[in-house]
DUF4240 domain-containing protein
Amino acid sequence: AESRLDVSAENPDGNMDRQIERLTKLLTDLPPEEVRDFDRHFAQCMYDAYRWDLWAAAYIIEGGCSDDGFMDFRSWLISMGHDVYERALADSESLVDHAADPTVEVCAFEELQYVASKVHGDPMDHGLEHPAEPSGEPWEEEGDDLERRFPRLWAKFADE
């Protein structure tokens, strides 16, 4: 299941339709239990990325970020592949170059959240519970908190 996420992201060229098409084909050829495994792994990646520092990155990059917007941002992050995802978990400011890539139109990928359910034909029950709150240290919208804590992202995206 993990490698399927990377296969769908092996050419993250900004073309989300092409990524969805590749991933749908991969999942369609699998037995239902492997589709569930994929969905469980995807959900775990979403939950692991439910962090204040990544929400701050999304907020700065997108010029604001709601709860739903942060879900779509985390889907985009996963779609960028294992290496980008792991670097972002280690340092949210590593996203400065990926989000600024000219092939990336938007850092949100809502459709990726529903691929397994569409292939399976029913909503997936992965048995995982979404964390009640993001992990890490919360940030303040007002003042210089974001600029101070995320200087590279702020310098690149705050005035765009």
Observations:
- DSSP finds ten helices and no strands in the chain.
- The longest helix spans residues 32-48.
- The radius of gyration is 16 Å.
- Residues 2-157 form one domain.
